[in-house]
Backbone:
């Protein structure tokens, strides 16, 4: 199977907590389970997860049953609305729409994509791609810490 998927877990600032790279023939629900597997001990304060609409189905029940966390699925607004015959329908949203909490993950993917080794899939092994993502995020966080220490003087 050609292609790979990256599933990431980020905090509310968009900093990378966990990444899993796997072949693209694995569904999003199963990839999400790979990311969250055995994380309860690493992040004991984590209690709520926002996910994309691709994670609908048994994923939310699995997270609630195995980890005890709540899951909120962030969906796009529906374009089809039923309204009474005597009322005008509301205007249909057009163009780009910012979805709540989803932009945090998209911004993290953009930060990772700014690194040359992560802009395309050059690596032979998925574990190597994961390591490069951790290195890229470490570099980003170290830069921010250095900048904040300079600005605080």
Residues:
């Amino acid at each position: 199977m050609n292609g790979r998927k990256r599933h990431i877990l980020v905090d509310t600032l968009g900093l990378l907590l966990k990444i899993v790279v796997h072949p693209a023939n694995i569904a999003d629900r199963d990839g999400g389970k790979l990311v969250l597997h055995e994380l309860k001990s690493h992040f004991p304060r984590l209690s709520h997860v926002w996910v994309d609409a691709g994670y609908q189905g048994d994923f939310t029940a699995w997270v609630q049953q195995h980890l005890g966390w709540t899951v909120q699925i962030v969906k796009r607004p529906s374009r089809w609305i039923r309204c009474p015959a005597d009322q005008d329908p509301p205007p249909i949203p057009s163009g780009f729409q910012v979805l709540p909490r989803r932009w945090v993950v998209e911004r993290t993917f953009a930060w990772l994509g700014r690194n040359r080794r992560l802009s395309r899939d050059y690596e032979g092994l998925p574990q190597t791609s994961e390591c490069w993502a951790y290195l890229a995020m470490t570099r980003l966080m170290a830069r921010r810490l250095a900048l904040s220490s300079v600005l605080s003087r």
Q: What stands out?
A: The chain has a mean pLDDT of 87. The longest strand covers residues 16-23. The longest helix spans residues 126-151. The radius of gyration is 19 Å.
